Amino acid sequence: MSMRIELDEPKCVAAGQCVMVAPDVFDQRDEDGVAIVLDAEPGPEQEDEVREAAAVCPAAAIKLVER
Amino acid sequence: MKEAVVVGASAAGLAAAETLRRQGYAGKLTLIGEELAAPYDRPPLSKQILASQWEPDRLVLRTEIELAALDLDLRLGVGATGLDLAGRTVALADGTRVPYDGLVIATGVRPRRLPGQGAHVMRTVDDALALRKRLGPGRRLVVVGAGFLGAESAAVARGLGCDVVLLEPAPVPLAHAVGTQVGQVFAEVHREHGVDLRTGVAVSAVTESGVRLADGTLVEADEVLVAVGSIPNTAWLDGSGLTVADGVVCDEFSAAAPDVYAAGDVARWHNPRFGETMRVEHRTNAAEQGMAAARNLLHPGEGKPFDPIPYFWSDQYDMKIQAYGYLRGHDSVEIVDGALADRRFVAAYSRAGRLVGVLAVGMPPKAIRAWRVALTKEER
Ligand SMILES: Cc1cc2nc3c(=O)[nH]c(=O)nc-3n(C[C@H](O)[C@H](O)[C@H](O)COP(=O)(O)OP(=O)(O)OC[C@H]3O[C@@H](n4cnc5c(N)ncnc54)[C@H](O)[C@@H]3O)c2cc1C
Ligand code: SF4
Prior knowledge:
Distance between the termini of chain B: 35 Å
Structural class of chain A: alpha+beta
Radius of gyration of chain A: 11 Å
CATH architecture of the largest domain in chain B: 3-Layer(bba) Sandwich
CATH topology of the largest domain in chain B: FAD/NAD(P)-binding domain
Number of helices of chain B: 8
CATH topology of chain A: Alpha-Beta Plaits
Shape of chain A: globular
Helix content of chain B: 10-25%
Largest sheet of chain A: 2 strands, antiparallel
Strand content of chain B: 25-35%
Oligomer: heterodimer
CATH class of chain A: Alpha Beta
Largest interface: A-B, 20 and 25 residues
Order of helices and strands of chain A: EHEEHE
Bound molecules: flavin-adenine dinucleotide, iron/sulfur cluster
Strand content of chain A: 15-25%
Strand order of the largest sheet of chain B: 3-2-1-7-19-18
């Protein structure tokens, strides 16, 4: 199984919860705080963190496509 | 555990159900929700939905496929009416009883109302759609209560061209939460945008033509929105033996009784980080506490205290407000970055010399993150 991250940018409320949970995978733009995906296909060692980030995102803006 | 039941199918309940599955729970999982709609998100109701920027289909928290993958017995449109702790069953409005050996209570809150008929409230997607149908250029909206919900709605209504009167009993809006200085800034921003903000004004009732103030004055309106706080949905727990005191009272693990947990807006729990019992109506807390409740339900012996730093955001006009921590208990406020006059600042809140919260307006994430980290490091 591998995982791909899709970010629904207009939904993102710039909470930054994703960055706190998975700092290697997410960052935020300086101008408006909207999330940036640093690594859209994270390795298996990061998948738990990324699932946690998607679950805590208050805007349900992080979609995970698992294949 | 073989029969897990989650009551309340919104942010907290959904997070609990998902976490149970993610942690490998393979037994029966029943999710009970009073609303007919599949779990949806509330913060956009007073923002993009009220502004007609989004339609309700954007609010769904999970797709049908994602819900199906959770293998739920999903009972929507039916409320829980009672809890039998000894017999371990939840009674439903349709007369059925659902047995459980693990229970998560996530029934949220409902809006407090005022005497009189015909006012809008803002909690459900229907509430938001009902109000938005009535807004438009030249329409006169009276908003009762200048908390975050009232303030956001007032801002959106101004954007739609309404005449907006915002009535607030306190001398400065939100002062109890954010302090006087910062509350003043919010007040100024509303006035600059043409909102008729009147403070120190108590409303006694909603009338056919508007609202009546405590001193008898009438304030006329085409529409009235009452945003004066909320009441935890705990009536169904009356007589159950659970302790209810403005929320379901829980310990630091979010447990209300053995194998019974509460999460989200309805839960009042002991947050060891702040040494205080709190109930927070914040979107991220709902998800995080739902997750924590599910974990502790599955692994009771090795439970982890739920000790988050509460987080809240609010959008008003082009102002993005973000708050971390527990600001309510503060005894001093200091502007530590930016300037109030620029509407770009970080305010640090402390109590007895300890940092307890941070509020930022218009600051880049990196400037805020340092303060978030400082909050996590603060010793209690
Ligand atoms: C308009 C609006 C704007 C907001 N904006 C923000 C914001 O900008 N930032 C922020 O951090 N937070 C915001 N919030 C708060 C946030 O939405 C809540 O904290 C969050 O929805 C709480 O989730 P919950 O699952 O605990 O409760 P709720 O979302 O209230 O869900 C509880 C569910 O339980 C159901 N229920 C109730 N009683 C029963 C029963 N007896 N049986 C079965 N089901 C029952 C209810 O119908 C409801 O669906 C906003 C809230 C609103 C209403
Ligand atoms: S947690 Fe969600 S809303 Fe917050 S920055 Fe990340 S993607 Fe955006």
